[in-house]
């Protein structure tokens, strides 16, 4: 009788943590079981720490609630948001793995046009393990993908590409629209599956959504602070945007790449647009000042580690955005606290160990 088929070891099985921010039971994991079960989960329980979060049997996980965050970080816990999905960044900080995948608990396995289930984690890993092309756009999209390559006229001097720091996935069904767009298009669903992975060009910012996101934690982890949102803050649903803008400025400075496109997940729940509008509205006008700030941000060549870049960026935020609103002074301080907390929890060999273009010291 043929031996039972030996399951291949999942890619990066012991080098990647899956971080999930949650306020609800994690039944959604049942659908992801075939793809996630062999990976370690870091669950960041938001809201009431006395509530018990049910995790389906068979998953290997660690769970942190607000009491744990306060116990582990002490006063530095002030930089971790409460009552907002931004709390997920605590999971990035406590992880000891090289890679992170973060997903929301209302995101499910999507199907590609052939009706096959999409292993989003596997695609993110492929994105992270293959180079990016931030310096010159390849019109046939990802040149490192099976069945594609660099097109005529693409400089050979650039074909080695850059290390990939971030892989930004997309969403079928409920798209990540802001509240005003949700309000005017309440029934709009994203049915368009685009079979492409693009590198976001150097010098270009983009709106990073945290619901289906993977990154190389050893490269860019210290920059992935999801900014102060939720309880006691004047703004919400800009945590991932803030992280994305800071991250992209630093990746451009360090010579690393950021990809967006595949994989898709199925986003099932539209959050309340009126609640979202209350959270977002200041951000909708502040960002008209924030984007030019990040577009103009220059990091000195002396900043050779992500921590140094991040501290420098926090200084510029305080100097230049403090006049937009005092919130940005608080946020700049929280950015510094985040780095202090990150370095406090992570071993010295991880501290500022990454030099530009990803080579270790
Ligand atoms: O106070 C909270 C509320 C929610 N969560 C967890 O965060 C994840 C996202 O929550 P939800 O799906 O309800 O909100 P969305 O509006 O769809 O999320 C998008 O916008 C906000 C963020 O940028 C998020 O990344 C986007 O996906 C989910 O896992 C909740 O359990 C929380 O931790 N605390
Ligand atoms: Mn959602």
What does this structure look like?
The chain is α/β, with parallel strands linked by helices. It has one domain: Spore Coat Polysaccharide Biosynthesis Protein SpsA, Chain A (Alpha-Beta Complex), CATH 3.90.550. It contains 10 helices and 9 strands. Strands 1, 2, 3, 4, 5, 6, 7, 8 and 9 form a 9-stranded mixed β-sheet that branches. Helix 1 links the parallel strand 1 and strand 2. Helix 9 packs antiparallel against helix 10. The mean pLDDT is 95. The site of the ligand O=c1ccn([C@@H]2O[C@H](COP(=O)(O)OP(=O)(O)O[C@H]3OC[C@H](O)[C@H](O)[C@H]3O)[C@@H](O)[C@H]2O)c(=O)[nH]1 has 21 residues, from strand 1 and helix 7.
Give a concise summary.
Keywords: Cell wall biogenesis/degradation, Glycoprotein, Golgi apparatus, Isomerase. By secondary structure, the protein is an alpha/beta fold. It contains 10 helices and 9 strands.
